[in-house]
Amino acid sequence: MSLLSAHRLRKSYGEVAVFSEVSLSLAAGEIVALLGESGSGKSTLLNCLAGLDTPDAGQIVLDGHALEGLDDDARAALRRRALGFVFQAFHLLPHLSVADNVALPLRLLGQRDDARVQHMLQAVRLDGLAQRMPRQLSGGQLQRVAIARALVHRPRLVLADEPTGNLDPRHAGEVLDLLRTCTRKAGAACLLVTHSEAAAQAADRRLRLDADGLHDA
Ligand SMILES: Nc1ncnc2c1ncn2[C@@H]1O[C@H](COP(=O)(O)OP(=O)(O)OP(=O)(O)O)[C@@H](O)[C@H]1O
Hints:
InterPro entries: AAA+_ATPase, ABC_transporter-like_ATP-bd, ABC_transporter-like_CS, ABC_transpr_LolD-like, MacB-like_ATP-bd, P-loop_NTPase. This protein is an alpha/beta fold.
């Protein structure tokens, strides 16, 4: 079953066309790498797929729901339930501890599961830093917090924007393993923007974005 499908998406900023004719389908259990030159629109596409930005044309169906038929509240509810997003700039909340940042997706769903938060922190090797504040972490540690936060509520779809960009090869390998394990175990799907050859090779398939759409890479 397709967890995410997009059909003929087009996006411009003013007069500047970013992409057109973008179609894709992600099946349960698969990890797909999204490649493309800097500026080709990978982050823009991820934002559109998450319902955080709106394409100028085309349809997106996320976990069985057509995004264009949903108002802002319904989109936000779907995002909270079904989606884990690893932002390129992490977007951790600066006034919350590491543990509270990771717990946030659960809290937004009205849930509390300290054991699950602890498990995710262990999985990204940050269990010793649970009470630190984000400003007290390195770039690679912030990135691992963002990954734990994206996976803690067992989302059906994980959209990850360069999730290994700040990590050394060992930590990058661990994060990719974690994304793979969580994706497979939850029957979820993961779309992973990356410039890393190792990360691309760890995916089940690779797609390249350019101005006229997505192509197998
Ligand atoms: N809010 C915006 N307003 C105008 N142009 C934008 C906006 N956001 C992105 N762009 C432009 O859209 C294009 C695609 O940007 P995007 O960040 O999606 O690329 P990317 O493929 O993710 O790049 P990178 O690999 O460098 O992160 C770029 O030319 C960028 O300058």
